From TrEMBL, chain B:
It holds the Pfam family SBP_bac_1. Coiled coil: none annotated. InterPro entries: Bact_solute-bd_prot1, SBP. This is Sugar ABC transporter substrate-binding protein.
Length: 448, 448
């Protein structure tokens, strides 16, 4: 489906490019003919004026000295050809640097003014040619302003009514006033036809150019929308998967509790009930039973511990907390291309298993959040202790977040800390900062 | 897919660059080839002039001075050739020059047609000489008569150098004055002297009831205004001074003079027949008709001479100075050489001295005009006759002369003033209010 779309677009592009090229050829040719025609008529009429011996009246009427006839022809044609050279180069060098392109543009403007002056400002169609080149080359933004200024300036300079007299230019009507009335009308008409044709071709050219740009933009917008919707779907999947995992975990926990604790507690209750009945009849038997209950309880604890072990992060099973943290952060910084600083002031970093779990989980969750939500490229983690309190801070230099919506991650962290009697603080004004405090049972013996 | 589309455009651009670049190189090659063919030959400086005299008097050999100057210039600048087209009549010269300008082939140095300095300067056809003058240590504008030099100046920019000048002098019919027993007026004579002599000589000689001897012919209100110390326009040609009281005095004086003739309109024929005592005439006329052979052609029935114009109560005997100017084409490729050549014509004493011998104008260089040589020359012109013009007087007249205004609207303003003032002189409009109205109207015209 996408393939066939592309193919159609390609054919379309090809044909449009073709039309644009043909239009360009048309514009160049038309202007060339116009330049030759205007220059030719000017040269011819200067000679005609001399022929009919009216030179003095002509000079008196125009009050300026016209250019030499040969100079008019030579300068206008040469400047126009140079303009074409530069226009061609500007198309060949579309990818060149800004300066090269600007220099070409300045050159084009110069030759455009040169031709227009040589024609005594009697044909201003070349401005459109330069404008077309400028519009094709511009990339938006500040260049648009420059373009606007350049076009306005160019039109001001090449407009006869505005500055013609000042620059010593001879108006078209003075040139053709030496022809018969019908020829004058013909010449006037021919010039207007050239001017209008040039304008029509220019507008057509611009329309095609702008249309092409418009279509390109449309396509990009369409692709963007598709990407967006795919993204949303993916997010929904992720959320569902997380929920499923959570449910699965709960069920497993429930099962685990039921299987281990339930079994042991039932045994203990049954044993204790038997002991209550037996205690008066046979203390000896009771003691035996109690010893048994103790065994069962111990066995139960082992089972519980085993279950809890199953819930522990794998890494903590195998290695020390500090090492596990370092490895986890290394992996993360490697994967997310983020710079993560880890400053640990507590040596050795060794606590009870549940505390180690929480420390590990809090840091893991916080850094993951920083990268996922804050798009942070720099994260700093520090661990230090004061009295019985262990403080973990995770500071990132990412986007931060003004209004914090408590998600699964944050809630989880809070819950885990609460179990140990700890607390969690966070704020998101300048990056994101999480501060977790855990009361550590330093030196408290715990049966291991 | 996209790449496939671009295949159409890139080769097109490449072909465009190649084709246009090759055409430009071809064009440039042809142009350079044309240019280099001219190199290797002598450097050619082109000079534009008209045949005959600028002052509308017969001139036998107008090329002699120029040819001599060119010879001296070519000797001083080896490898340089000066060329000019001969045989262009003065009345065709302006058109010829305009045609050369339109064809781009105008001479490097050329004479400026009468009254066209402003047009040539504002059309930027002639060069602003200020920088050349500043750079040239050997050139001092103080050598010129101020009025002559200043005639080539528009708004503080010197566009042309004077070549020769002509001032107005008062022709006196010596025979008539002798007959009437009146002494030749001296150089210090004034309006009252002029008026009283006119009154004395105006009479009916053959007693047929019709006045047939007159005091003056062709004394205009401009002559009266200038000799009363008034300039009609400000230097930059933006305001006029027709409302000045000196103008009113001049008009009153002209009216008084007119009243002597009792309504009879004196013609130039009357003067030629020797029936008129005074006539303002250009110096060129004097130079032409004083010496042989032209002397017998005109004014042959009586002895005549020149004096300064009578001075008015408010100022010296100022007259208008008419000057032939030369300029340099603004697109000459050899500005420095052109300047040197123009200096040979307009600044070098050799050329200027030759003007005295060959031309009818006055040299514009003070030193040449006031040299004893000139006096001797003028004496040679009229062998056996006494009472030639004292050259100190000519020098004085040149010194005091005011240049003809050279701004664009001067001719139009003068036409307007002439019409209104003749109405005032005829009594159709009152003098003071009419003049103020005229000043207002002309100032309005000048603001255009």
């Amino acid at each position: 489906m996408a393939g066939s779309d592309n193919k159609n677009g390609g054919v379309y592009l090809l044909s449009r490019e073709n039309v644009i090229t043909k239009l360009q050829i048309g514009i160049y040719l038309l202007n060339f003919v116009a330049v030759c025609l205007v220059a030719g008529i000017m040269t011819y009429s200067l000679r005609e004026i001399v022929e009919v011996m009216d030179a003095r009246n002509f000079l008196k009427a125009v009050q300026v000295r016209p250019w030499r006839p040969g100079t008019i022809l030579f300068t206008s044609v040469t400047c126009y050809l140079m303009l074409m050279v530069l226009s061609g180069i500007s198309q060949l060098w579309e990818g060149r640097g800004k300066w090269v392109r600007s220099m070409i543009m300045v050159g084009e403007i110069g030759f455009c003014i040169g031709t227009t002056f040589a024609l005594n400002m009697n044909y201003d169609g070349l401005v459109l040619l330069v404008v077309a080149d400028m519009i094709r080359g511009q990339k938006g933004g500040k260049q648009k302003l420059i373009l606007l200024l350049a076009v306005t300036g160019l039109y001001t300079i090449t407009d006869y009514n505005l500055l013609g007299r000042y620059f010593g230019m001879v108006p078209w009507d003075s040139f053709i006033s030496y022809f018969s009335v019908s020829t004058q009308a013909l010449l006037r008409g021919t010039r207007s036809i050239f001017v209008s044709m040039n304008l029509v071709l220019f507008i057509l050219y611009m329309v095609l150019l702008i249309q092409g740009e418009h279509r390109e933009k449309e396509r990009i917008r369409f692709l963007n929308a598709q990407l967006e919707s795919a993204n949303l779907k993916l997010k929904a999947y992720a959320a569902e998967a997380e929920k499923n995992a959570e449910t699965r975990e709960r069920n497993r926990l429930a099962r685990e509790i039921h299987d281990t604790l339930g079994h042991v507690l039932t045994g203990i209750i049954a044993g204790i009930d038997a002991c209550i009945t037996l205690i008066d009849i046979s203390p000896e038997e009771t003691r035996k039973r109690l010893v048994k209950i103790g065994d069962v309880t111990r066995q139960g604890i082992t089972d519980v511990r085993r279950s809890v072990s199953k819930l522990r992060p794998d890494v903590l099973e195998k290695m020390e907390l500090e090492k596990a943290l370092t490895q986890m952060l290394d992996d993360l910084s490697h994967n997310a291309k983020a710079e993560i600083g880890f400053d640990n002031q507590v040596h050795p970093l060794k606590f009870h298993e549940d505390e180690e779990d929480v420390v590990y989980r809090v840091i893991q969750e916080a850094t993951t959040n920083s990268i996922r939500h804050g798009h942070a490229e720099k994260i700093h983690i520090s661990i230090h202790k004061k009295d019985q309190w262990l403080t973990i801070t995770v500071k990132d230099y990412g986007k931060g977040c003004e209004i914090i919506e408590k998600g699964f991650g944050l809630r989880h962290m809070e819950e885990r800390l609460k179990i140990l009697g700890g607390s969690l603080e966070y704020e998101g004004h300048d990056g994101f900062l999480i501060t977790a405090k855990i009361p550590i049972r330093w030196g408290e013996e715990y049966d291991s | 897919m996209k790449k496939e589309g671009k295949i159409g455009r890139k080769p097109f651009a490449a072909r465009l660059v190649l084709g246009a670049a090759v055409s430009v190189l071809l064009l440039l090659g042809v142009a350079i080839n044309c240019r280099t063919k001219q190199a290797g030959e002598d450097q050619v400086l082109r000079f534009g002039m008209f045949a005959g005299s600028y002052w509308d008097v017969p001139n036998g050999n107008c090329y002699q001075i120029i040819d001599d100057a060119i010879m001296r210039f070519e000797a001083a600048h080896p490898g340089v050739k000066v060329e000019y087209v001969s045989g262009i009549l003065k009345e065709d010269y302006s058109e010829w020059l305009s045609e050369q300008v339109l064809l781009g082939k105008e001479p490097d140095v050329f004479m400026i047609p009468a009254g066209e300095l402003d047009m040539l300067a504002s059309s930027r056809i002639i060069k602003n000489l200020n920088s050349l003058i500043e750079r040239d240590k050997n050139f001092s504008k103080e050598s010129y008569y101020q009025a002559a030099y200043h005639y080539g100046n528009i708004k503080q920019k010197q566009f042309a150098l004077p070549y020769e000048s002509v001032t107005t002098l008062m022709f006196v019919n010596k025979t008539l004055l002798q007959k009437e027993g009146i002494a030749m007026p001296g150089s210090g004579w004034n309006w009252d002297d002029f008026l009283s002599i006119c009154r004395q000589v105006t009479k009916d000689i053959d007693h047929n009831g019709i006045t047939d001897q007159f005091g003056y012919y062709g004394y205009s209100w401009q002559d009266a205004a200038y000799s009363n110390g008034l300039s009609l326009f400000s230097e930059d040609g933006t305001t006029s001074f027709f409302g000045d009281e000196r103008m009113e005095a001049a008009l009153k004086y002209v009216k008084e003079l007119e009243e002597i003739n009792q309504g009879y309109t004196v013609t130039s024929k009357d003067f030629d027949k020797g029936k008129v005592a005074f006539r303002p005439l250009a110096f060129s006329e004097y130079r032409t008709y004083k010496p042989y052979p032209w002397r017998i052609k005109k004014y042959s029935d009586f002895e005549w001479d020149c004096v300064k114009m009578p001075s008015g109560p408010a100022g010296g005997s100022r007259t208008e100075l008419n000057t032939l100017l030369m300029g340099i084409s603004s697109r000459t490729g050899q500005g420095d050489l052109a300047w040197e050549f123009m200096k040979t014509l307009c600044y070098e004493e050799d050329t200027q001295r030759e003007l005295l011998e060959q031309s009818q104008g006055m040299p514009v260089i003070r030193k040449v005009t006031e040299s004893p040589q000139l006096q001797a020359l003028l004496n040679n012109d009229t062998p056996g006759r006494s009472g030639t013009v004292d050259m100190n007087i000519i020098g004085q007249v040149m010194d005091e002369a005011v240049e003809t205004p050279n701004f664009r609207l001067y001719p139009a303003a003068m036409v307007m003033a002439d019409g209104e003032i003749s109405r005032i002189l005829k009594g159709e409009a009152s003098m003071d209010s009419g003049l103020l109205k005229l000043q207002r109207e002309i100032n309005g015209l000048l603001k255009q």
